Each structure stands twice: as C-alpha cells, then as structure tokens.
Amino acid sequence: MDKIIINGGNPLHGTVEISGMKNAALPIIYACVLVEDKCVIENIPNVRDVELSLNILRKMGATIKTLGKNTVEIDCTHINQGTSDPELVKKIRASYYLLGSELGRFGKAKVAYPGGCDFGGRPIDQHIRGFESLGGTVCTDSGCIEIDADEGVCGAHIYFDIVSVGATINAMLAAALADGNTVIENAAREPHIVDLANFLNTCGARISGAGTDVIRVKGVNSLHGCTYAIIPDMIEAGTYMVAAAATGGCVKLTNVIPKHLESVSAKLEEAGAVVDEFDDSVIVTGKVKVRKANVKTHPYPGFPTDMQPQMAVLLCLADGVSYVSEGVYEKRFRYVEELIKMGASIKVDGRTAVIEGGKPLHGAPVIAVDLRAGVAMAIAGLVAEGTTEISDIHLIERGYDDIVGKFKMLGADIKKVSLPDPEELPLKKVNLA
Ligand code: UD1
To answer: Of 89, 186, 220, 374, which is most buried, counting CB atoms within 10 Å of its CB?
Structure first.
C-alpha cells in the first residue's frame, strides 16, 4: 500500500546521476547462467526487477554476493537447470532470458510463462522461431515453455519477421555456446543489445555486428568470468529530461551517453526545451512555453516506446494539438484515463493519442498502471497544481532507482508513504446495543 505524494509546482533544478540501465542489467544477469565462473557486474541499478532476477538465480543454485551498492558477483557454476520458481518468473518479463541461457548452456530449458507490463498481447513467436532455428524443439503444453535440443544447439541463419529486443537477446544467448556460426537478421539495434554483446565478448564469446540489424555469433566452447560495468539507463535519463522540461527547470544529468538520448533530445527541442550535450552529461532547460509536437514510437534509434507516456505529459502543457502514435505495442495508452483525472484533454483513437494541450493539470489520486505510465504520473504530479497521490508504486520501483530521493534532490516536494493494507487493519468494533 505504498504511495508517492507530490505537491506540484516546483521547477526542478540541480544535478542527477543516472543509474545503470535496467534493460541491459537484466539480460546480462541471465547471461551469467552461460558462464561457469564468477562474473562481477558493476553499475547495477537498485531496482526491483534486478532484485527479483537475482533471487530467481539464487533459488536455482547460483551464488550471488553484493560487493558494493551497485556491484554484484554472480557465480552460476552450480546452477540447476529447469528449477526456476514459477511464481517469481511470472512477475517479470525478462525472466524469459532464462530460456536462451538454459538452452545455450544445457541444451534444454524449462521456464514458466513470463509476466511484465500489460501492453496488450505480447507474443513470443519470434523467440520460439530463434530457438527452433538453433535446433530446439519447443513445447508449451505443460503451462511452461520447454525446449529440447536433442542433437545439441547448432549455429543457424535466423531471420526475424519483426524487430524484437527480447527475441534478439534470446537468440544471442542461445547461440553463444552453439556448435557453429549463427547469423541473426532483422535484429534489434538497442544499446542494451550492444551491452549484452560486449559483456559476452568480455567473457570470451565471439559476437559481431551488435548495434546493426545483422548480428553474427561464432559459437565457442565455454565462457569465462569477467568484470563488466553496465551502460547508463537511457530511459531513466529521458524521464528526468522530460521532467526538467515540463517543470520549466534546469537539470544536469550525469553518467549518460548523449548519443543514446538523441531521439528524446530532438523531440524535447521541438517542444521548446534546450538540450546541451557534453561528453557524458546533458543539461536540459525548460521554457515557460511548451510547443506542440508529434511523436511516433519505433524500435531504436527511433523514439522509444518506453518514453511515450512521459512525453505525452509534456505535450499536455503545449500550445496546441499534438499526436502521439504508438508504433511498437498494440495497447499502451492505459495511463490516459489517469491523466484525464488530472485535467488533461486526450482522446485515444486506435494507436494514436490526440492531446489538446494547454489545459491546466491539477493534483488527483491516480494509479501507476505500469512502469513508465507510473513515472509519467509522477511528472504530471510535479507540474500539477495541488497534491497528487500515486498508488501501485511498486510498478515504478521495478525500474527506477531511488526515484523519490532523486526528484527530492532536484527540489521536488515529493515523499513516499507506507499506508497499512486495509485488509490487515483490525476490524472496527460495532456497537450492537
Ligand atoms: C523490451 C523492453 C521494454 C521495451 C521493449 C521495446 C526489456 C525487459 N523490456 O521488451 O521495456 O518497451 O523492449 O523497446 O528489455 N513481439 C512479437 N513476437 C515476439 C516478440 C515480440 O510479436 O516473439 C512484438 C511485441 O508484442 C511488440 C514488439 O514485438 O509489439 C516489440 O517487442 P520486443 O522488442 O520483443 O519487446 P520486449 O523485448 O518484450
């Protein structure tokens, strides 16, 4: 029953350090299953999805040591294949990376269906195509996904019908120790794909082309341990950039790779903010007047779908009508209902939200319907007049490291409160007299 309470109206000012990227940390954690040795992973973000993933591996027999605030040592030498806890696996999307890792190391895999945010149907047909191409037989009859490569995992030519981050990662994981060479075509190009390839290569894998749409994997016999630092989180960075612009503040973000932020920076500038780029930092200055802009989400290097709800909040403040189109997921506008409670004027037509800007936002009780939607509510709360109360914040904590502390450091009036669960409250005495 934790909530975030925000009294809006303070422009954000100051410096915020961006954490390691959740969506890079997760595949790298599961990639450790391929390594019969110790891997030291640095710049790990302190977020619930990471904690959950480490717990999944720990329960399977991995040895995990915390070496510092953002450093863990993962040793999967004695991990037991096929023993992941279905209840934990169902809580997180990225748990499906265990399929690729188990298949790669043991020639078979067994994992329950993954969970994750609800953006409409989230099929895994492309993952299955990758596994089958590499020699796996996939069976989903038992309520979990089971893969068997009786004759071993063999390098292959994989052509994906659509660009999928998850399917590309799973194919790389399954192919790293395969017999022979694999070519993955129509691969996703996200920075976290490159980070995974760099991690695996540091462990002795031979992967080239990550960051382009053709990735080549030369199978090796084994991988060795390494020390590796995760890249900065471009979505966390983009979120603070939008918050700075929306509140009309000025924020310096450190520990970023400006190249990864280009699509967000370009849209922010179109909307009237100023973005100054440096080697590993950016400064975003918001202006009183926000300009309308149209946004369409695409796979990288397009505008990220994970920045769509945050950008929509900014465009609620603009001087006209903006169109926000979702090009990756079939349903990613569930947050619109919550923004309307705060005074926004938005109509959703299929995969496009039509935002009539300039209506003042006011505080209201709202729900974090998913991870990025939840953080968009926080940005709306920072801008709105009055008090915003966000519930279901465990969804925000899945992917944001110390969000309340970071916004507070930038001058926001924000706090987290823990309220007792009504079901656990002692029953009220009823006077029957
Ligand atoms: C990852 C990210 C998520 C981000 C998304 C797109 C993680 C843990 N999650 O999710 O934050 O929003 O990339 O940048 O890194 N699809 C299929 N068949 C498949 C696989 C995907 O039809 O087998 C579809 C999906 O339904 C979606 C699109 O392809 O419409 C893209 O999905 P994908 O890139 O796979 O996203 P995820 O890896 O699940």
So the answer is: 374
User: 50-80, pLDDT tens digit by residue?
Assistant: 999 999 999 999 999 999 999 999 999 999 9
93 lines ligand 1 (CB under 6 A): yes
pTM of the predicted model as reported, rounded to 2 decimal places: 0.95
Q: Is the CB of 20 inside a 6 Å radius of any atom of ligand 1?
A: no
Which helix (H) or strand (E) covers residue 281, if one does? Answer: strand 281-285
State the closest ligand 1 atom to the C-alpha of 128, by its place in the atom list counted from 1. Answer: 23
Q: Is the CB of 118 under 6 A from ligand 1?
A: no
Q: Which residues pair with 214 in a beta bridge?
A: 185
Going by alpha carbons, the residue nearest to atom 25 of ligand 1 is 122
Distance between CA atoms of residues 241 and 220, nearest Å? 41
Q: Which atom of ligand 1 is nearest to the CA of 125?
A: 23
Cis amide leading into 301 (omega within 30):
yes
Listing from the earlier edge strand, what are the strands of the sheet with 365-367?
A: 365-367, 387-391, 2-7, 413-418
Which residues does 5 contact at the CB level (< 8 Å), separation at least 6? 387, 388, 389, 390, 414, 415, 416, 417
Q: Two tokens at 201?
A: 């290569």
Q: How wide is the angle at C-alpha 301 spanned by C-alphas 298 and 305, nearest 5°?
A: 35
State the catalytic residues. Answer: 117
Strand duo 108-112 + 144-148: pairing: antiparallel
- Residue whose Cα lies nearest atom 9 of ligand 1: it is 23
Average pLDDT (350-379) is 96
- Does the Cβ of 123 fall within 6 Å of ligand 1? yes
3-state SS assignment for residue 322:
strand
